[in-house]
Amino acid sequence: MPLQWGDLNLLALRIRDDEELLYDLERGAPVADLPDGASALDVAYREDDTPLGSTGTFDLCLLARALFPTSRDHRLGTMCARFGISWVARSRSFAIAELFQALIREASTLDKELVAVLARLFLPPISDILGRVLLLPSEPRGPLDGNDQQTDDTPAADLPITFDIALSPNGPIAAEFERFEVRDGQHDMARAVTEAMEAGHALLVEAGPGTGKTFAYLIPALLHLRNAPADRVIVSTRTRQLQEQLFLKDLPFLVKKLHPTLDVALLKGRENYLCKRKWHNFVADLTESLEQDQLQWVTPLVRWMMETDTGDIEENSAFLGNPRARSLWSRLNDTAHHCTSAFCPFQEECFSILARRRARRADLVVVNHSLLLADLMVDGVVLGKYSHAILDEAHTLESVARMAFTRALSEWRIQHLADDLSPTRRRRRGWLHRTPFSGGAEAVERVQDLLTGLRRVSSEMFSEIGEQFESEGRASFGALRDASEQVDTLGQLLIQLENSLDALVEHIVDPEPLKELEGIIRNVQEMSGTVRDLAEMPHENAVHWYERSPRRFELNATPLDIAPFLKRTLYPKVQGLVLTSATLSVGGTFDYLRRTLGLNGELHDVHCLTAQSPFDHRERMRILVPQDLPPVYGALDPFAKHMAAMLASVAKVSKRNGLVLFTSYAMMQAVRDHLPNDMNVLVQQESSRTALIERFREPHQTAWLLGTESFWEGVDFPGSQLEILVIARLPFPVPTDPVFAALAQKTEAAGNDGFRDLSLPLAALKLRQGVGRLIRTTADHGLVILTDDRMLKRGYGRYVAASLPVPIEPVADGEALRRHVAEWFSDVGGSKLRIPGN
Fold it and tell me: Within the chain, what is the greatest distance between any pair of CA atoms?
């Protein structure tokens, strides 16, 4: 039955956008005015989260996010396209009017329970309209768009198959590709991975873009499990993007072709999954508190939560795309300290538990390095036993492990612990308020008193420490006891709090809050241990350091050498081990990685391979080093001014997209300040990373993206999206960084050279990662401009250059650089370069 707007007591809309439009719903057309006594609903679409002009305005974007939480974005154009609403030759306001009708019709088809929850969470006028929708008859609706997955159960031929057959032109893989290319490097890597898994040794394999390394390790893994069904494989990655690509794209395709009965699973850290118990507590707390206005930010969770199979928040782009919603995630996600396990009323439908169950029974599990390391720390409780491990993006394993084992303390963490138990402003309820006690009033009061003392002492301690550690940035310190007399008092309060919480056990009858209390006590114990460690001087394999900014002041204890941990926990656990990345070697050897990861051949024979790239980089790219810029290691402003002039000149000559990688925000901003206003520049920190990437990828434009740390790896801009890469400075570690300084000191204490054996290899590896942003696919080509003359003037420049895919070329001055740029892109346009895909 068509929706009758009269049934909703809606006659007209007043669209407040680029123009004011009065729209008659029954007639489906704009009108000049309304009948006497009639009113119109004010509607606007604020996709950029700017405040609405009126509190009585219907924010259509909020409703769109709630109804389609997994949509890739929620821009007006995207939502209109979903419903076939065209606004070509029409006003934006007219499109909003039609979209309003489409979204209300969508809401009327949903389950009444879902609509009721949304009506409860939204503020007026959205809640009012949804309340009226509840009174309408509804039609059954299928699952949320985007969650359906078509499966093909066509079995692979039950015939012996090897990696040679799988990767052959007539094999099962090639049959699915219109153009299949046999790659020698991929073939060599697949052979080496097969041997490592069968013979039981460790393999370090470097495979750059175009090699096809993902298939080169997944195919041998699947075939090994087909031949040895009792074995089990863990595949670990650094980035979420690769983790999801493996599970959602590569593995389904290969499993169907090579091993259809294989059980595979994806597992992330439990903090990525929604906790249903915390959700219900959150809604109950906010409904009865002064925070009711925050309920509307979690509306994208409602429909998604009812229809998702995983509960992984990464599916929910609407929630993650709103900063105000993201700030609430710590009150909604699963955590060990708040889990009540068997006593939770939602245990059987717990997303985190279900994900871990799937992982433990799966033959192949895709995880991330942080989760793998956390599992090793608890002796395999989460992942269970496995026979083989493949670590992709292995160049990051050392740094990920070091940060995974870092213990941190901040005033915010202490206050957060206290607020979990008893919030001060009573804007929400804490554990003490939610828990029914049987007597024990004095014990509860004792905990309250200790929380008051904990807040006061932590505030005084961090204030006292802050006066001594006053400079912003990062720096090391020794014993925290020397910086504040309050450290011992804080430690004593935490011990007393642990004992007092333990005394509450005999006054709790309900097993659910009792189980939650166990997690709270563990949290207090961990914090107490961190305070105890920081109070004393760090041991020889650790460094104490602080990080301070206007919004953050945190104390940390970080281990330095992680090789002993890996040698004790990971290497004895597996029969075969594969570590791979596009960048593992330095100066043509794998010595640095073997040393830092402890792969010295004690437990496994260690084999190394550099897989041949199918790309002829000499035809695809050049690396130019201008000689006329001021030294990058000198005064900042002269360099920034000359570099900005160079960038503007190159942009004007080339008319191509460029990415500029910096090693500091200060240098990036200084260069930005000198760039001309008519240059289309996107700058990190001026928008979210995701938004910058999307804007940079937009066709029919020329843009220059300026970025720092997070853009040096993990981003792909194929083809014409990126044709010029500029690297401002060799990415040496900051000598004063407390962790690096301690590592350098430890390196030199062992008789090695801190610069040659630590700083230089790290810089070379990171430079290769940066240069690797340019050539990612068969259609890629372009120029790299490296504006650090130390590549030419210092002896170590040759060492660094030897790690790059093509020789570096000195360029005398700006005029010569412009000529090189013009000639290169003239050749590309004239098809003189033999670049497939152009």
Answer: 91
Alpha carbons 599 and 384: distance in angstroms, whole number = 23
- DSSP for residue 536: S
The CA distance from 457 to 434, in Å, is: 26
Cis check: omega of the bond before 125, within 30 degrees of 0: yes
CA distances from 373 to 334, 592, 762 (A): 19, 21, 22
For residues 115 and 112, what is the distance between their CA atoms, to the nearest angstrom? 5
- Give residue 712's identity as a one-letter amino acid code: W
Sole residue written with tokens 């920190």: 685
Residue 83 CA to its chain's centroid (Å): 31
341 φ, ψ (degrees, to nearest 5): 45, -115
User: Per the structure block, which two tokens stand in for 452?
Assistant: 């008051």
Q: How far, in Å, are 247, 336, 566 from residue 354 at the CA level?
A: 17, 15, 28
DSSP string across 663-722:
S-HHHHHHHHHHS-TTS-EEETTSS-HHHHHHHHH-SS---EEEE-GGGSSS----GGG-
Q: In this structure, what token pair is assigned to residue 570?
A: 């990971």
**3 state SS of 252:** helix
> What are the tens digits of pLDDT across the range 378-436?
999 999 999 999 999 999 999 999 999 999 999 999 999 999 899 876 556 789 988 99
The pTM assigned to this predicted structure is 0.87
| Cα separation, 277 vs 345, whole angstroms | 7
Question: Cα 414 from chain centroid?
Answer: 26
Q: Indicate left, alpha or beta for 766 from its phi (over 0: left) and psi (-120 to 50: alpha).
A: alpha
What span, in angstroms and rounded, lies between the C-alpha atoms of 485 and 460?
10
Q: Which of 358, 363, 361 is nearest to 231 (CA)?
A: 363
Rg (CA), the chain: 30
3-class DSSP state for residue 526? helix
Q: Which of 730, 732, 720, 706 is nearest to 774 (CA)?
A: 720
DSSP string for residues in 93-151: HHHHHHHHHHHHHHHHTS-HHHHHHHHHHSPTTHHHHHHHHTTS------SPTT-----
Alpha-carbon distance 586 to 451, whole Å?
52
Higher-confidence position of 700 and 626: 626
Percent of the chain with pLDDT over 90: 69
Q: Write out the two tokens for 209.
A: 């873009």
User: How many Cβ atoms are within 10 Å of 256's Cβ, its own excluded?
Assistant: 18
Burial class (CB in 10 A: 0-12, 13-18, 19+), 75: middle
How many CB atoms are located within 10 Å of the residue 93 CB? Answer: 23
562 vs 373: CA distance, rounded Å: 11
The residue among 191, 181, 188, 230 whose CA lies nearest residue 208 is 188
Residue 89's pLDDT band, with cuts at 50, 70 and 90, is low
Using CA atoms, how far apart are residues 43 and 91, in angstroms rounded to an integer? 15
- The residue among 747, 711, 749, 750 whose CA lies nearest residue 728 is 711
Contact between 834 and 827 under an 8 Å Cβ cutoff? The reply is no
What's the first-to-final CA gap in the chain, in angstroms?
53
